[in-house]
Amino acid sequence: MKQENQNDNNFPKLGAPAERALAQAGYTKLTQLIKITEAELNRLHGMGPNAIGRLREALTLQGLSFAEASEWGLITKKKKASTVSRTDKVG
User: Fold this and answer.
1) Where are the alpha helices (DSSP H) in 25-63?
2) Which tens digits make up the pLDDT trace of 52-87?
3) Distance CA 23, CA 51 (A)
């Protein structure tokens, strides 16, 4: 008999929308989630804070975590701020 939080893909028990979101995005195993950030996961339709928290906890129990944005080159340089503020009068 399998434990409630352990199934063939090692995903914890999630709601149906979150399970569908993972499946539609092609994630079939918990370990695949170490390659994406929480922000990317959050963009999936059906994925909410409760599901992300459960996935984070499941990864932590295995000594893993979601990717950090900088690990995959996802942080881009910020644009330089404009020298004109919104309160400045133009021309």
Assistant:
1) 38-42, 49-61
2) 999 999 999 999 999 997 755 555 444 455 555 556
3) 14
Cα-Cα-Cα-Cα torsion 18, 25, 58, 65, nearest 10 degrees, comes to: -130
Residue 49, CA distances (Å) to 23, 39, 43, 80, 83 in order? 18, 11, 11, 33, 38
| 86 half-sphere exposure, CB direction, 13 A CA radius | 0
What tokens appear for 39 in the block?
A: 């922000």
Grouping H, G, I as helix, E, B as strand and the rest as coil, residue 14 is coil
Sorted by where each starts, the structural domains of the chain and their CATH numbers stand as 16-68 (1.10.150.20)
Distance CA 59, CA 71 (A): 17
CB 7 within 8 A of CB 30: no
| Token output for 84 | 């004109």
- The torsion angles phi and psi of 35, rounded to 5 degrees, stand at -95, -5
